[in-house]
Amino acid sequence: MNQKKIAGEKAAEYIKDGMVVGLGTGSTARYMVDKVGEMVKNGLKIQGVPTSKATEEQARSLGIPLLDINDVDHIDLDIDGVDEIDGDFNATKGGGGALFREKVVASLAKEVIWIMDESKLVDKLGAFPLPIEILPYGYQIVFKKMEEYGFNPKMRMKDGELFVTDNGNYIVDLHLGVPADIEDVKAKVNGIVGVLETGQFLKMCKRIIVGTDEGVKVIEAK
Ligand code: 5RP
C-alpha cells in the first residue's frame, strides 16, 4: 500500500467548495495536490495557496486557481506533510526546505491537517534533524552560536553548494538526538539574530492523517 498516497488523497476529502486551501510541499503533499487537481477538473471551486515554488508549479500545471500570499486574508484549511510528529502533535517540518512558507501558510489557516506515512509518528522528537532557515548575511556567526549551544548544526548542502531556499536563504539542520528538549531549542534558536524561522510546528493542527498498511487513519488532537 502506498501510505503517502492514501493519506494525501484522504486529506483532499476535507476540501469543500469555496475554500481557500494551503497546499503543502513534499512527496505526500504531492499526492494531495494531484487529487485536488482532479477535483478541480471535476468542478470543485477553490483557491490554493502554495507553500513552495515546486508546489506552485505542480498546482499551475493541474489548473488549480492560486492566490498570491499578499492577497490572502484567510486560509480555511492547510494540508501539508511532516518529517516527525509526537503524540502531542508537535511536529518537525522542513525536510524539503520549504519551512518558512509552510509556516506562514499554516499560521494563517483556520484548520491544519498534517498528512504522513506511519514512519513519521514518534514518541519524542529529535531523530530527524531540525531545519532552521537562516539569512545568508553573517550565517557563520549564527552557525557558531548553534554549535555553542550544543545543537550539532550542519549546513544543508546540495550538489556540493550551500542549499538555497525559495526565499534565497540557507538551511541549518540541527542534529539534536532523542529526546530533543523542544522548549529549550525553541527559546535559544528564536533568540539568535539571523534566524528567519524554525521547522518546529508545535501543536498547530487538530487532526493528522496517517497512511498505514491497514488503510488510512484519521487521528484527532487529544
Ligand atoms: C517540506 C516539508 C515536507 O512536508 C516534509 O519534509 C515531509 O515530506 P514528505 O511528505 O516527502 O515525507 O516539510 O519542507
Can you describe what's shown?
With 222 residues, the chain is of the alpha/beta class. Helix content is 28%, strand content 29%. It has helices at residues 3-12, 27-41, 53-61, 99-108, 139-148, 182-190; strands at 20-23, 47-50, 75-81, 84-85, 90-92, 109-117, 130-134, 153-155, 157-158, 161-162, 170-174, 195-198, 200-202, 207-212, 215-220. The protein is globular and about 55 Å long. The mean pLDDT is 98. Bound molecules: ribulose-5-phosphate.
Fold blueprint:
Elements: H1 3-12, E1 20-23, H2 27-41, E2 47-50, H3 53-61, E3 75-81, E4 84-85, E5 90-92, H4 99-108, E6 109-117, E7 130-134, H5 139-148, E8 153-155, E9 157-158, E10 161-162, E11 170-174, H6 182-190, E12 195-198, E13 200-202, E14 207-212, E15 215-220
Parallel strand pairs: 1-2, 1-3, 3-6, 6-14
Antiparallel strand pairs: 4-5, 5-13, 7-11, 7-12, 8-11, 9-10, 14-15
Helix pairs in contact: 1-2
The structure holds ribulose-5-phosphate.
Regions with little confidence, pLDDT below 50 for 5+ residues: none
Kindly state the percentage of residues in helix. 25-40%
Measured between the Cα atoms of the first and last residue, the distance is: 28 Å
Q: Choose one word for the global shape.
A: globular
The ligands bound in this entry are: ribulose-5-phosphate
Strand content: 25-35%
H/E element sequence: HEHEHEEEHEEHEEEEHEEEE
User: Largest sheet, described in full?
Assistant: 6 strands, mixed
